[in-house]
Amino acid sequence: MHTIDLAYVGRGLHEELAAYIADQHGYYAEEDVHVALHDGCAWDEQRLRRCATIGLGRALLARLTDGTPWVALNVNTDRPLFWFLARPGMTSLTDLAGRRLAVHAPHTAPGCFTRIVLRRAGLDPDRDIHTVVRPPGDYGMDVRRLRDGDLDAAVVGSTMAPEAVAAENGWNVLAWIGDHFRIPTVGVAVDPTFNDPDDPAVQALVRAHRRALQVIRNDPDTTVRHMRTFLGGQTEDETRAHYEAFVAPYFATGGQADLSVGADAVATVAGELGVPIGVAADDFYRTAHIRS
Questions:
Q1: Which domains does the chain have, with CATH numbers?
Q2: Which tens digits make up the pLDDT trace of 190-247?
Q3: Which end of the chain, N or C, is surrounded by fewer C-beta atoms within 10 Å?
Q4: Residue 186, exposed/middle/buried by CB under 10 A (0-12, 13-18, 19+)?
């Protein structure tokens, strides 16, 4: 049996759902690969690049800023699962002007995506908003601070169904980042310095994840059951509504990247980071090169 290390770099079903299903359904074993799954959220790039990684956004940022030669071999979706959750009185992104917004750091993938969306709404994230930078997590403290009034809004990820949390508390979901910025995100990426894309373990890992994507798209009941592992604070009906709104329509079945979307995303991210466009979309997103 082949072996490979796989690291996720964010928490929630956005990063973990496909890997979780591949493991629970025995797809890794059936593809003859043992996958050791690691929490790489706090790892530096040198440690992370020795593993395959789920976080394609972070991999792209590293390639653009540091030249780390990551390549993406599988893509789950091009709609990042992050939302702007806000207290009453705000109904649109423009209402964030002058408000206290919890965000990820600018050099992180979700932080970069957030800044892109804010700029598209006509807001300068450095001047128009009082940003409260915090590391990625389960966002539970953000919800607590929103309830206490210490925050006006927060960018939250997929450890919750934000529309259900908003309804419970009388808050509003101002925007879904996936509605405003598309980028092939979460899947499988490797640094060929340490993991050859043609290595049997890498190929087996990708095949297992593509089988998991088939479950996500074609078996709603099973997928909702698995999603409740990540959305423990939501009911089955709330979880199903979240699946139908944000997962079922947008998760790919074949793991391929839309290179036109990828090219636009690479250029937009490079512009936000203030670095050259140092990689072509078809060089970074090599999803067509995996054998079935």
A1: 2-79+182-289 (3.40.190.10), 83-180 (3.40.190.10)
A2: 999 999 999 999 999 999 999 999 999 999 999 999 999 999 889 999 999 999 999 9
A3: C
A4: buried
